[in-house]
Amino acid sequence: MYNLIAIIAAVFYVFSTAIIILGLVYQVGVRSNVTLISALLALVLHGFLVANLIWIDDGQNLSILNVALLVSFIISLVMSIAMLKIRLWFLLPFVYSFSVINLSLVMFLPSTFITHLENNPKILVHISLALFSYSTLTVGALYALQLNWLDYQLKAKKVLVINPNLPPLMMVERQLFKIISIGTILLTGTLLTGFIFVQDIFAQSKVHKGILSFIAWFIYSILLLGHYYKGWRGKKVAWCSVAGSIVLTLAYFGSRFILEIIL
């Protein structure tokens, strides 16, 4: 049954993606109502699948693929809600494609990593902060890429700049730094709770997560300081955002991917 739900959710995501791409390519108005309804149906099925795959009778199955499925759900939900306020059509095909990939992987590569977070609420707080900080900063990286692309189009005086489906440059920039600021605060909370609540944080299997997470925090802190005090914009912001997101991905999923998928 879960495989069927995953397939239907993926189909709705693909349908929304196709509508958006056609609207962008031909520079006509994206059929927002149809896109939103299709995305909403996909999100409902996606969320149902996440809940049933993670919260099982034996505890919580926080396998790497289930966590990735949860992260993709959070990102898709946040970006779909943001779409109601500003035109984010350029980003949504990437976001929805990420969800489709995760839905496909869960179908063909089921994995298990049982935990019991109900017995350790402090760790639940730490994991929740980690998931939301990673999701928020990943959204920030997507915003940064869109900002850099819009800036390039503007400087090159491309016709796409006047595409009615694309958001104003300054609006994207304001949203970007709000998102990165929130994500950095959440990441700070993740590091603090990890240091306080995780007893074996310096164990060989976990120490790399702390080091890489701190490196990502340092990158984002330098980015924010550079923007607010030095006026950083454009490529510097995009590179720092993407670099921070990659480092966090390695921190959160690197070793788990090797242990659960490769080995």
Descriptive notes:
The protein is mainly alpha-helical and 263 residues long. The chain has 2 domains: 1-113; 120-263, no CATH class. 76% of the residues lie in helices and 3% in strands. It has helices at residues 2-25, 32-54, 64-83, 92-108, 121-155, 169-197, 207-230, 235-262; strands spanning 55-56, 59-61, 114-115. Strands 1-2-3 form a 3-stranded antiparallel β-sheet. Keywords: Membrane, Transmembrane, Transmembrane helix. Residues 38-262 form the Cytochrome c assembly protein domain. This is Cytochrome C assembly protein.
Question: How would the blueprint of this fold be written?
Answer:
Blueprint: H1 2-25, H2 32-54, E1 55-56, E2 59-61, H3 64-83, H4 92-108, E3 114-115, H5 121-155, H6 169-197, H7 207-230, H8 235-262
Helix pairs in contact: 1-2, 1-4, 2-3, 3-4, 3-5, 5-6, 5-8, 6-7, 7-8
Q: How many separate domains?
A: 2
Query: Any low-confidence stretches, pLDDT <50, length ≥5?
Result: none
Kindly estimate the percentage of residues that lie in beta strands according to DSSP.
under 5%
Lateral strand order in the biggest sheet: 1-2-3
What is the count of β-strands? 3
Instruction: State the assembly state of the protein chains.
Output: single chain
Instruction: Tell me the overall shape.
Output: flat
Total helical segments: 8
Q: Nearest-angstrom radius of gyration?
A: 19 Å
**Secondary-structure element string:** HHEEHHEHHHH
Helical fraction: over 70%
Ends distance: 28 Å
Largest sheet: 3 strands, antiparallel
